[in-house]
Amino acid sequence: MTNRHSSEIVHIVQLLGYKRHVHRDWFDENNLAATQHVDELHHKHLAWISDKNSVAKKASYKHARKTTQRELRTMKDAWWANIASELQAAADTHDMRSQPQASLWSKARRKYTDS
Fold it and tell me: Which of 25, 51, 90, 112 could form a disulfide with 95 if both were Cys (CB 3.0 to 4.6 A apart)?
């Protein structure tokens, strides 16, 4: 690449910026609730860490951890069920405008089946 070409690219990027892709994820729609659960878990963990000998704080932290994991899984499963019903409705009506959802499904399924 020449210096002129690279400087042109730098100026174009500064002027226009990069294209931002917006992806739908399960936590986007549940961000507030998920944050509240994680914050509660974090506070209970800090309380237990500050007093490692407290059996009550350890039990409280473990209960909060179990509850947080259960609630986050429930939110994630509900989001996936909603996406599946949207895709099924699009497939039933042969709605080709909903095809981007199909690519979302295949990409997200690969990304989140391991987690």
Answer: 90
Q: Which residue has the tokens 């259960």?
A: 70
Is pLDDT at 96 greater than 80 in this prediction? no
Distances (CA, A) of 96 to 81, 105, 109: 21, 15, 20
Helix (H) or strand (E) holding 53: none
**Dist. CA 107–CA 103, nearest whole Å:** 6
Going by C-alpha positions, the residue among 66, 104, 67, 97 that lies closest to residue 82 is 104
User: pLDDT, tens digit, for every residue of 18-30?
Assistant: 666 556 666 666 7
Answer yes or no: pTM beyond 0.90: no
